[in-house]
Task: structure prediction
Amino acid sequence: MALWRAYQRALAAHPWKVQVLTAGSLMGLGDIISQQLVEKRGLREHQTGRTLTMVSLGCGFVDYPDALITNYYLWPAVQLANFYLVPLHYRLAVVQCVAVIWNSYLSWKAHQL
Result:
């Protein structure tokens, strides 16, 4: 919980920087999940350049935390539930969790042979 509070403080103090780093981290995490859990590459076959490319894309195309999902025009039900059912201070966490799943799918789809 202390890590979450530190993240919230950093987000309040430096919203743009934190959002850029968050988006890049989530894209990278999504690629790692795709390579390791979906594609089952293992550490020796992990394509680090691919992960860094995904991190760069995440950092370069960030808008706002909610845009991680809404820019893709997918999962409107998640956003609907997020805005109507989830307390304000947990909304970013919900979007980020869904973004990791979406980024894993994007990475897998983009790198299918």
